[in-house]
Design brief:
Layout: H1 8-19, H2 25-33, H3 42-56, E1 63-69, H4 72-89, E2 92-98, H5 100-113, E3 120-124, H6 128-134, H7 140-144, E4 177-189, H8 190-193, H9 196-206, E5 212-213, H10 216-230, E6 232-233, E7 236-237, H11 249-256, H12 259-263, H13 304-320, H14 330-333, E8 344-349, H15 353-356, E9 375-378, E10 393-401, H16 408-421, H17 424-434, H18 440-443, H19 446-451, H20 458-463, E11 470-471, H21 480-495, H22 501-526, H23 542-547, E12 564-565, H24 567-576
Helix pairs in contact: 1-3, 2-3, 4-17, 11-21, 21-22
């Protein structure tokens, strides 16, 4: 068995004898003052830190540069863990924080120019189809038994990670190491939903119970109810929906993060639809070659379900969200819930749970005086075209990624830092700060059993088998950085009112196919994509594809009867699973 798969206890025993002879004063200080709680004992933590001290000796004094996006987990890494790593190993880390769009742009630039801009990136596993095809990122499975073998932590324990299936390519090799993980779930004000007067009023108007919406019809009814019927609570104007619409890269991710598949645009199949994925791109089950995004090529990016999805996104944003939300970006919209004037959000990233559990004294109006959340999280509802067996939602797995354009010595030093910030010594504390879980041992620790009542269902979700049903972008997407930039521009056209949802998705699908045609030529000429580049289908009538496994035809009724369920019933299902 490779050493990096050994259990923590067995692996740490190998190096425990070294700890007694080393000057571990800095490690002891950090263990005592910062790295608590931990799934390891303090002696086991010290042994793991001793391994890092020994492995880092050849790189002591080196300064490495790494890049990640600005969520609470990475802010903690940059502000605290980078300093701890330097104190313990002598390796300096410039851990830079930028917006997600800038991270993807920097990664793309380094891949295109082969210039070493950063020694490592925390790069979403959405790019697994890109990395496994282009082969510009180090194959970590090979590196851990090869050029990284001397700097691979014996206690890394890959079996303890919950998201490595999303960072493994079709070839079975690991290309990225998870650093943080969060899902998009439904968020709602349970205190309002539990009010008898509101429950009675809702049922009188809509004919069914106010509760967690199962389908988009119920979500829309609830949004209308709070925005137009209730209007205010405790003298404060309230709204039935929250979203964002600023014309920026994260507007595209708002949609590619499974919005189309939640509407029902993809095919059945988990974690991503087969043959049509959550982007509407077709790739046959027995192939690695994407075949098209347009309905006439067998995709669904401009099909009835996709157009319905974009129409509902735009309609709800304008009718039921707070004024100004249309100009919010990703980073503005999610913490805005803490103002306490929104009843629900259909698509809420749990990465921002940390900001939603702050005390009232810090301006969070969604907790009570004891810090108990007035809100809960639950699975997001699905659209009219969705069928059982289709993808249910998106999960972000931000993962350490190392490009071959980085000199090997610098990559080794950066690999040490990446392993340090996900090590069992620090991961439990980091999980408590950022609430973005990557290890089973952390989420199942007793400290989270104690904290669970103050986290609004997050612990229950991540302890349930349901968590694996939420998945990142899959391997149908051949080149994420190139194709992702098309999305936000076309969705922005809808938000600006310049074109209709149908026109926007027609243009989007066409541009996706044009880009993939260029990739096809490059792959056919030089195997740029490892022979797994696109091979586009010839155009056929949409009606032919509707009848032969392509996009779903338009429904006569896109708003079926609303369905809801009680939150308590949902939690009971998680416990039973």
């Amino acid at each position: 068995m490779p050493t990096y798969l050994l259990s923590a206890t067995a692996a740490l025993a190998v190096v425990a004898c070294q700890a007694a002879h080393a000057d571990g004063a800095a490690a002891r200080k950090w263990i005592d003052e910062e790295f608590q709680p931990s799934v390891l004992t303090k002696d086991e933590q010290l042994s793991e830190m001793q391994w890092f001290m020994t492995a880092a000796k050849p790189y002591k004094g080196m300064k490495i540069n790494v890049l990640s996006e600005g969520i609470p987990t990475h802010v903690y890494e940059a502000a605290v863990l980078a300093k701890a790593f330097e104190d313990i190993t002598g390796i300096r880390v410039n851990h830079q924080i930028l917006g997600e769009g800038e991270v993807v742009q920097a990664l793309q630039t380094q891949m295109q120019t082969k210039r070493n801009l950063y020694d490592a990136y925390v790069n979403d596993s959405d790019l697994i189809g890109t990395h496994s095809r282009l082969q510009q990122a180090y194959n970590l499975s090979a590196m851990m038994t090869g050029d990284f073998s001397g700097v691979t932590n014996p206690g890394l324990d890959l079996d303890d990670f919950m998201g490595t299936q999303f960072t493994t390519g079709p070839d079975g090799n690991l290309y990225q190491l998870p650093d943080q993980q969060f899902a998009n779930l439904y968020w709602f004000r349970k205190d309002w939903f539990d009010r008898n007067d509101l429950k009675i009023a809702f049922k009188e108007k809509y004919g069914y119970d106010l509760g967690v919406p199962i389908n988009w019809s119920a979500y829309e009814d609830i949004a209308e109810f709070f925005s137009e019927e209730v209007q205010e609570i405790d003298g404060i104007p309230i709204y039935g929906h929250m979203d964002y619409g600023k014309r920026a890269p994260d507007l595209g991710w708002r949609i590619t993060d499974a919005w189309l598949s939640m509407a029902g645009a993809g095919s059945k199949g988990e974690p991503n639809g087969v043959p049509i994925d959550e982007w509407g791109i077709r790739m046959e089950a027995d192939s690695c070659n994407p075949a098209g995004a347009s309905v006439t090529r067998g995709g669904s990016a401009n099909g009835p379900a996709a157009v319905y999805a974009i129409r509902k996104w735009d309609e709800w944003l304008r009718k039921y969200a707070p004024p100004g939300a249309v100009s919010y970006d990703f980073y503005q919209s999610l913490p805005a819930l803490a103002q306490g004037n929104v009843a629900q959000q259909i698509f809420w990233y749990t990465a921002f749970t940390a900001s939603m559990v702050k005390p009232k004294s810090e301006g969070n109006n969604t907790v009570d005086d004891n810090g108990i959340p007035l809100w809960r999280m639950a699975p997001s509802p699905h659209g009219a075209y969705w069928q059982k067996g289709q993808k249910v939602g998106y999960q972000d797995v931000g993962s350490w990624t190392f490009l071959k354009s980085t000199p090997l010595e610098r990559a080794r030093a950066a690999w040490l830092y990446a392993q340090f910030v996900v090590s069992k010594t620090v991961d439990l504390k980091k999980s408590h700060v950022g609430l973005t879980f990557i290890r089973d041992s952390s989420i199942n620790h007793t400290s989270f059993s104690e904290r669970a009542p103050k986290l609004g269902g997050l612990v229950e979700f991540y302890r349930s088998p349901d968590r694996v049903a939420w998945s990142p972008t899959g391997v149908n997407v051949p080149d994420y950085p190139e194709l992702a930039q098309i999305w936000w521009q076309r969705i922005g056209d809808v938000n600006s009112g310049a074109i209709t949802p149908q026109e926007a998705m027609d243009r989007l699908a066409e541009e996706l196919d044009i880009s993939m045609a260029r990739m096809q030529r490059a792959d056919e000429e030089a195997e740029t994509y490892g022979g797994c580049g696109p091979r586009l289908n010839e155009h056929k009538d949409a009606e032919w594809w509707y009848a032969n496994g392509g996009a779903k035809p338009k429904l006569e009724n896109e708003k079926p009867q609303g369905e809801t369920v009680t939150y308590e019933e949902l939690v009971a299902r998680w416990a039973q699973d």
